[in-house]
Amino acid sequence: AQSVTQPDIHITVSEGASLELRCNYSYGATPYLFWYVQSPGQGLQLLLKYFSGDTLVQGIKGFEAEFKRSQSSFNLRKPSVHWSDAAEYFCAVGAYPSGTYKYIFGTGTRLKVLA
Amino acid sequence: DAGVIQSPRHEVTEMGQEVTLRCKPISGHNSLFWYRQTMMRGLELLIYFNNNVPIDDSGMPEDRFSAKMPNASFSTLKIQPSEPRDSAVYFCASRDSAYYEQYFGPGTRLTVT
Q: Is there a contact between B37 and B107 (Cβ–Cβ < 8 Å)?
C-alpha cells in the first residue's frame, strides 16, 4: 500500500543553522512529490513539487528538495533557517491508490527555531 | 487570484446543531477536495469532486456528513447533527486537473460543545 513517512515529529534548530526534514514514501510507480508548510492557524502552502526531470528542485522561501529514487526519499532542505520558518511541514505523494488521483500525506514535522 | 476561500473561519456550535462549511475554489480549477485535520488523525481526505461530481466519498465518516458542489465555484460540507468529536479544522483544496498540485484554503476551525 502507498504510504508517506516523516520520521521526525519535532525538530529544533537554531536560527541560521541548516535544516533537513526527512520524507520517505512507498509507491510502486514514479510518484508526484510535494512539500507543504502550515503556519499556526493557517492553511497549507505549497513549498515545492517534483514530477520528473532534475531531481533537485527549488521552491519558495529558499527551500529545496532532492528526489532520490534509490532511497525512496524526498528530503526538504534549507541552508539557513529563519525564525519565521517555525511551522509544521508536510510531505505528500500524489498517487492513484484506488484509481483516482489523490494525495497521501505524511504525519508532519513540527519545526521550532531557537533565536 | 484570491486563492481558495472558505467561510466561516471559525464556528462554535452546540452538539446536535447543523453546521455548514463553505468553499469557493480557485477560478478555473475543476477538482475540489474537503479535508479534516485533527491532532489524533492528522489530515484526512473526506470527499473529492471532479467537475462538480463526487468521485470519492470513502473518507466521509458517517451519514451525518454530506457535501455538495452545485456549481464550479461553490461547495458545501454539512454536518447534521454535529457532535463534539467533529471538532477539527476543515480544509478545502482545489486543483486544475491538468496539473498535479492542490491549493488549500485557510480552513474552518469547528468547535462543537
A: yes
Torsion of CA B30, B93, B76, B27, to 10 degrees: -40
* Total residues found in chain A within this entry: 115
Distance from CA of A8 to the nearest CA of B (A): 15
Residue A11 has pLDDT above 70, yes or no: yes
- Distance, in Å, from the CA atom of B80 to the CA atom of B112, rounded to the nearest integer, reads 12
Contact present, B44 and B53 (Cβ < 8 Å): no
The answer to whether B103 contacts A46, with C-beta atoms less than 8 Å apart, is yes
Using a CB-CB cut-off of 8 Å, the residues of chain A touching B91 are 43-44
Summarised one tens digit per residue, pLDDT across range A35-87 is: 999 999 899 999 999 998 889 999 999 999 999 999 999 999 999 999 999 99
